[in-house]
Structure formats: C-alpha cells, structure tokens
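Structure first, sequence second, as always.
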C-alpha cells in the first residue's frame, strides 16, 4: 500500500515536470523581446535559460517515468 502511494506520487510529479518542461520549451520558441534580455544571475538570455531548464526538467521527468514505471 505504501509503495503504491509513493509510486503514484512520483509518477504524478513526473507528469507535472513534463508539463512544465513543455511549457518552458514552447515559451522559449516565442518571439517576445524580453526573451533576448540577459537574466541578472546567470547572465544568459531568458530564452537560453528557458531552454536549459526545460531540457533539465524533461530529463528528470523521463527518469521518473523510467525508474518508477516498472
């Protein structure tokens, strides 16, 4: 029972990560001028930062699905 609840939690967290990763990647493809502005902490453009974070979230979500699917 406890393992089933943990599996449901991890799979739902993976699904949320997948959705937010898709939103970040789609947003990075936009043509809004603010995406070209440098981000103050990492000094990357917001577009580049959205790409990096979106891909990192996508990899994490795929790992959750792979590890906890079986």
């Amino acid at each position: 029972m406890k393992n089933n609840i943990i599996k449901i939690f991890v799979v739902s967290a993976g699904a949320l990560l997948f959705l937010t990763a898709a939103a970040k990647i789609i947003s990075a493809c936009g043509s809004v001028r603010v995406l070209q502005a440098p981000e103050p902490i990492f000094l990357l453009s917001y577009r580049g930062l959205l790409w990096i974070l979106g891909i990192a979230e996508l990899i994490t979500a795929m790992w959750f699905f792979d590890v906890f699917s079986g």
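Margin note: Residues 24 and 59 are 13 Å apart (CA to CA).
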